[in-house]
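Query structure, 281 tokens:
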């Protein structure tokens, strides 16, 4: 089964490597002022330009008060999401039967390999983006690590556990579809699906490449399928978790992008002069 997990890890590593690759130009003749990141590292500053732990309280407050700023289209999307989960509830038993009827050694191995990406592997992925951003000086990779961590902690660490305790749905492996709060029901929504789709939505939001988006959401989808195959969740549990993860991930990315200040140094050299331009975004 180690080979099965490697088959999932290898494409992810390659995707992250391709996504964080940047063009490196040879330095122009002359002395360029150090970037803020280089200056802070050289001086041993206690205030690095990137923090792996964002201001979660501000993010949580922004998300909690978001309905106050919603327009008609936002409420429509919420209604569609709730209706979709409600519709999936009616099909849970049929979908569960379809999944188990088509289970074989290949699907079981794939599910076992993909499942951890809804838990510890997702944090390892964010760690890989952080290291790539730090050592390749890639601001986008750093942003993925920061936004992904914030989204994971809020969506899978706060919102989903509260809904689990409030709804109280039992897992398929425990009994039939039953809602009994305080009686061990923690099936709805799926925490693994929430975590996987929160990270996937952040990665997809930062990279325009369709291949990156397909890889991110495809892997998250396999996480949800693995939870159904193990009889840990129904289809509606997975769908609810996916919608929560995507909504929180995209919201955090938009919020952080509105606060980020990006400064780029653009040198210009000719035979008689040397100039440095600054691009602020």
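Result returned for the query:
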């Amino acid at each position: 089964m180690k080979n099965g997990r490697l088959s999932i890890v290898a494409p992810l590593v390659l995707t992250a490597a391709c996504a964080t690759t940047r063009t490196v130009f040879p330095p122009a003749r002359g002395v360029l002022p150090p970037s803020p990141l280089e200056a802070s590292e050289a001086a041993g500053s206690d205030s690095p330009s990137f923090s792996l732990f964002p201001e979660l309280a501000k993010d949580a407050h922004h998300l909690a008060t978001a309905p106050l700023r919603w327009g008609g289209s936002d409420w429509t999307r919420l209604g569609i999401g709730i209706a979709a989960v409600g519709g999936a509830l009616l099909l849970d038993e049929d979908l569960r039967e379809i999944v188990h009827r088509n289970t074989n050694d290949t699907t079981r191995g794939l599910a076992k390999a993909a499942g951890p990406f809804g838990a510890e592997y997702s944090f390892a992925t964010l760690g890989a983006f952080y290291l790539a951003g730090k050592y390749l000086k890639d601001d986008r990779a750093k942003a993925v690590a920061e936004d992904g961590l914030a989204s994971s902690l809020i969506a899978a660490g706060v919102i989903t556990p509260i809904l689990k305790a409030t709804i109280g749905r039992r897992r398929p492996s425990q009994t039939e579809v039953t809602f009994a709060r305080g009686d061990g029901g923690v099936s709805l929504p799926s925490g693994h699906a929430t975590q996987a789709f929160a990270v996937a939505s952040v990665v997809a939001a930062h990279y325009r490449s369709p291949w990156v988006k397909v890889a991110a959401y495809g892997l998250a989808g396999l996480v949800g399928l693995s939870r159904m195959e193990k009889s840990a969740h129904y289809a509606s549990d997975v769908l609810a978790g996916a919608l929560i993860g995507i909504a929180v991930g995209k919201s955090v990315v938009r919020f952080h992008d509105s606060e980020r200040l990006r400064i780029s140094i653009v040198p210009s050299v000719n035979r008689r002069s040397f100039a440095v331009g600054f691009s602020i975004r």
